[in-house]
Automatic annotation (TrEMBL):
Source organism (scientific name): Strigamia maritima
The protein's name: Derlin
Predominant place of localization: endoplasmic reticulum
Keywords attached to this entry: Endoplasmic reticulum, Membrane, Transmembrane, Transmembrane helix
GO cellular component: endoplasmic reticulum membrane
TM region(s), chain numbering: 17-37, 58-80, 100-133, 154-184
Cited function: May be involved in the degradation of misfolded endoplasmic reticulum (ER) luminal proteins.
InterPro entries recorded: DER1, Rhomboid-like_sf
Length: 246
């Protein structure tokens, strides 16, 4: 147990809380300690019964059954892998900026989930974060199942097709790609490539002492961090599924 505890404590802070919640709530639902129906994003109980916790639980809850267990584990893998890479790479020293990114994605996913009647939001939330990492590392070569290789920018679409085969649906993945692309365009593409203004500056209330880092709100990683981030991105163990190399 001490090894598991030490590993969990080594996970970057925001990824740790997100990963922990994504384990605790599904397990409690599986054990019957929490009612699964109370954790879904449903319009009627949210608005008329004021069950305001539903948007938050819908982001981290996923039903664990013999039919869904494998898909749930892949979600945890992608969450841990790519959220950790972003938090220790591009957003190193800028914890408030990463928290703001997650907040924006959560709000967008909740709004779209209500609009399209999608009760579970773990899939789109995870894929939105994965999409941003892939766009920031678009030329990294990924190794997927059966030795297939492709550039990172194609990984979200590969995951979409993979999940469509496993679950028979792709709407959640498409929603996550849309949210991730919207954030990436407004935060990086539009200001840097088109010379537009930056719309997603992190609000001051998210900053705490020693939380501003050296990167500010520029969305760019200092040159001195780029090599370290590249090393960190290639130091996640020997598992080759869904990982890349330069």
């Amino acid at each position: 147990m001490s090894e598991i505890s030490n590993w969990f404590q080594s996970v970057p802070l925001l990824t740790r809380y997100w990963l922990g919640a994504s384990i605790v709530f599904p397990v409690l639902g599986r054990l019957g300690l929490l009612n699964a129906m109370d954790m879904l994003l449903l319009y009627q109980p949210l608005v008329y019964r004021f069950q305001i916790w539903r948007p938050l639980t819908a982001l981290v809850y996923y039903p664990i059954t013999p039919m869904t267990g494998f898909h749930y584990l892949t979600n945890l893998y992608f969450l841990y892998n790519y959220s950790s890479r972003l938090e220790t790479g591009t957003f190193f020293g800028r914890q408030a900026d990463y928290a703001y990114m997650l907040l924006i994605m959560a709000i967008c996913n909740i709004a779209l989930g209500l609009a399209f009647t999608i009760p579970l939001l773990m899939d789109p939330m995870v894929l939105a974060v994965l999409y941003v990492w892939c766009q920031l590392n678009r030329d990294v070569i990924m190794n997927f199942w059966f030795g297939t290789q492709f550039k990172a920018m194609y990984l979200p679409w590969v995951v979409l097709l993979f999940n469509m085969v496993i679950t028979g649906s792709f709407m959640n993945e498409l929603l996550g790609i849309f949210v991730g692309h919207t954030y990436f365009f407004l935060q990086y593409k539009y200001p840097l490539d088109f010379g537009g203004r930056r719309f997603l500056n992190t609000p001051a209330f998210l900053y705490f002492p020693n939380n501003r880092g050296t990167g500010g709100n520029s969305g760019q990683m200092p040159a001195s961090r780029q090599q370290n981030a590249a090393v960190a991105d290639n130091s996640w163990g020997s598992h080759r599924w869904g990982r890349g190399h330069t």
